[in-house]
Design goal:
- By secondary structure, the protein is low in regular secondary structure.
- The chain has strands at residues 8-11, 55-58.
- The chain is built from no helices and 2 strands.
- The chain has a two-stranded antiparallel ribbon with strand order 1-2.
Length: 67
């Protein structure tokens, strides 16, 4: 069972109306999130790019998030 933690989440302008990250199935290891984009983003093998999720968050010390 997951213990709740306090996370400061701020919605960015491009994230208005998008769903917040959430666990989509019981026992999921992580949350699903959506990209705040208006067109497809193609990332080639070995390439990196920034894609907004429409929010920012501040986690308490000792925690980390992965995408």
């Amino acid at each position: 069972m997951r213990e709740p933690i306090d996370v400061d989440v701020r919605i960015m302008p491009e994230g208005e109306g998008l769903p917040m990250p959430s666990y989509m199935t019981d026992g999921a290891a992580g949350c699903d999130l959506v990209a705040a984009v208006t067109a497809d983003v193609i990332v080639a093998p070995g390439e990196r790019t920034l894609v907004s999720a429409g929010f920012s968050m501040r986690l308490p010390p000792g925690y980390e998030a992965q995408i």
